[in-house]
Amino acid sequence: MRVVIMGCGRTGARLATMLSEAGHEVTIIDWQVSAFSRLPEDFTGATFVGNAVDQDVLRSAGIESADAFVAATSGDNRNITASQIAQHAFHVPRVISRIKDPSRAEIFSKLGISVDCRTSEGAKLILAIERGEHEVDNSIVLHQYFA
């Protein structure tokens, strides 16, 4: 599977590494070269410097042949905008957006974007731990999106 990831912060870098290790073709975009230092030295994916809200940057990074696009920056607005561009302008089959605000997450989920809202999921996990239930295996979450 060909995956384009926007944002090489902790989440984006970890996801890019996991997907690359699983054999997926990964391109990760960030507007700061220094962000790529979060990737391991043996990272086999591609890195691309630029603003992933810019359609020309997305084209140059290979969005037109992507099977999936993940918006994983720390900014909800950037993630939402880039996800909409990937979904509507480039017709990427699978678009996943990291959104911190639960209200926004609900709205964009209804618009057909797969949403990762750690705020809501974190609260649910804390409640599950408090009740003595088992923790969620993050590899299951990864498998849901990229199987």
Features:
147 residues, Rossmann fold, globular
Give the arrangement of secondary structure elements:
Elements: E1 2-6, H1 10-21, E2 25-30, E3 46-49, H2 55-60, E4 68-71, H3 76-89, E5 94-98, H4 102-110, E6 114-116, H5 118-130, H6 138-146
Parallel strand pairs: 1-2, 1-4, 2-3, 4-5, 5-6
Protein architecture, described:
The structure is a single chain. This protein is of the alpha/beta class and 147 residues long. The chain has a single domain (2-146), classed as Rossmann fold (3-Layer(aba) Sandwich). It is built from six helices and six strands, in the order E-H-E-E-H-E-H-E-H-E-H-H. It has helices at residues 10-21, 55-60, 76-89, 102-110, 118-130, 138-146; strands at residues 2-6, 25-30, 46-49, 68-71, 94-98, 114-116. The chain has a six-stranded parallel sheet with strand order 3-2-1-4-5-6, sandwiched between helices. It is globular and about 45 Å long. The relative contact order is 0.15.
Outline, from the CA principal axes? globular
Helix content: 40-55%
Name the helix and strand elements from N-terminus to C-terminus, one letter apiece. EHEEHEHEHEHH
Number of domains: 1
CATH superfamily: NAD(P)-binding Rossmann-like Domain
CATH topology: Rossmann fold
Q: What's the architecture, going by CATH? A: 3-Layer(aba) Sandwich
| CATH class term | Alpha Beta
Give the number of helices: 6
Please report the total strand number as a whole number: 6
Structural class: alpha/beta
Main sheet: which strands, in order across?
A: 3-2-1-4-5-6
